[in-house]
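Progress note, project year one: complex with magnesium ion.
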Amino acid sequence: MHPLEINNIFKSFKAVENRNEYITILSGISLTVETGKSVSIIGKSGTGKSTLLQIAGGLDKPTSGHVFCDGVDITTLNDSKASQFRNRKIGFIFQAHLLLDDFNALENVMIPALISGKSKKQVLDRAKMLLSDLALEDRMFHSTGTLSGGEKQRIAICRALINEPDIILADEPTGSLDEENALEVEELLLSQVKKENRSLLLVTHNIEFAEKCDYMYLLKNHNLELLREKN
Ligand SMILES: Nc1ncnc2c1ncn2[C@@H]1O[C@H](COP(=O)(O)OP(=O)(O)OP(=O)(O)O)[C@@H](O)[C@H]1O
Ligand SMILES: [Mg+2]
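Model obtained:
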């Protein structure tokens, strides 16, 4: 059993509302992410990287195929079961950060852990530690609506890691960061994989980051091609 097994995924979207025309985005994708391993996917804009990640995290359903997380087929779970499962097992870093702008940075990071029923003290300590790791200690009490794109991105990363997820799904986590902050994020995510034995599936246009992963794939022509594998 693996933390994440993507099995023969197809995904088509309706090309135009109210017409029976479909465009195929993903065509028979299979991929396994093992414990303590990182996998990156690169590929041109619009090839379906975010679509694949959303399906891998149970946020979207494939047209056909299955996704197993720790042996559970998440493609068959209803929305409420899928979101409970995600809260426990998966840390999702969205391309659009999707923070709650009425709350401050610290609250945004803490919310998923409070929902999962952890003690407030324990959650507060971990949230502060993660925010400090990404140089955000001065922004903890700022409402996220007032923060910069890169600050929001780093908060979204802390939020994804608060519940110590087995699987981290990261969609362009360094997309709006300067080089120094991008390196901090790379280090944090890769150390979660190596030191904490988590699994990372990363989608990125940042080739240097992609190359640091154990496996690097290219999404092209609706399917994955293995580009390199670290020894
Ligand atoms: N809900 C939807 N309905 C119709 N088409 C969609 C939908 N979601 C995505 N698509 C289409 O699927 C294709 C792949 O989108 P996706 O967001 O997965 O690309 P991407 O590889 O992540 O691109 P980028 O690198 O720009 O983030 C795009 O052409 C997009 O327009
Ligand atoms: Mg995308």
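The mean pLDDT is 94.
The helical segments are 49-56, 79-89, 105-115, 120-133, 149-161, 179-196, 207-211.
No further modelling is planned for this target in the current period.
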